[in-house]
Sequence to fold (261 residues):
Amino acid sequence: MARANRHFIPGHVWHLTHRCHKRDFLLKFGKDRLRWMQWLYEARKRYGLVVLNYVVTCNHVHLIVYGKDGGETIPKSIQLLSGRTGQEYNQRKKRKGAFWEDRYHATAIESGEHLLRCLVYVDLNMVRSGVVSHPRQWPYGGYNEIQHPRRKNILINYETLGCLAGFKNFDDFQSAHRRWIQSVLSDGRAKREAFWTQSIATGSRSFVEGVKMQMNSFAIGRSVRKNDDGFELREPQLPYNAFFEAEKNDIDSKNLRFWNE
Fold:
């Protein structure tokens, strides 16, 4: 049984998803969601992680980052914030065992419009689950920070986010972000879209085919498919919210790396 996708090609935006062990609601307490955010801040300071958006739910997390380096920043950051969050919870609850599912899943997202769509998808996570009616009502996500940038304890790299979304001015990006959120809410389109969380890459056909080409021999058997907003690169496997057995693939490619936690 295949494990969650976790490939790395430098210079891309990545949407990471990680679910609690056996889909348990181990993040149901606000203090634990806050601790995850605090460790995310520490990862940003310690490793230079470029955070574009995030949301912490009761049993999983979404994190959008920019992988600008050779592949060490993201795995070290995830190891830090996921490891420390799980350790602190287990110590407080006198609990033993895994806190997270075996692996987090990574999807390469094309910059520009597809990134903006992914941002909105992440922002609306708790709306889809029926917990809130607007993302501003959920304090454990990036929406409020994007709309009201902080002066301290900053998690999101505002300049990089606006630039990768295709805007020279962050105020213009904020306005577009609000409009997209309102448009989706007004049209009732806040539905789950599997390609954001289950594909290897999503975007235009040229972007997805470019990712496939960069994967070299590891792309054999992976197919480019049309989805609602563009194209995606997929492979036969369980979705990220299922149970994964401990199985490893060894890849030798100058363009492709595995993120080893």
In short: The radius of gyration is 17 Å. The CA atoms of residues 114 and 203 lie 6 Å apart. The chain has one domain: 7-238.
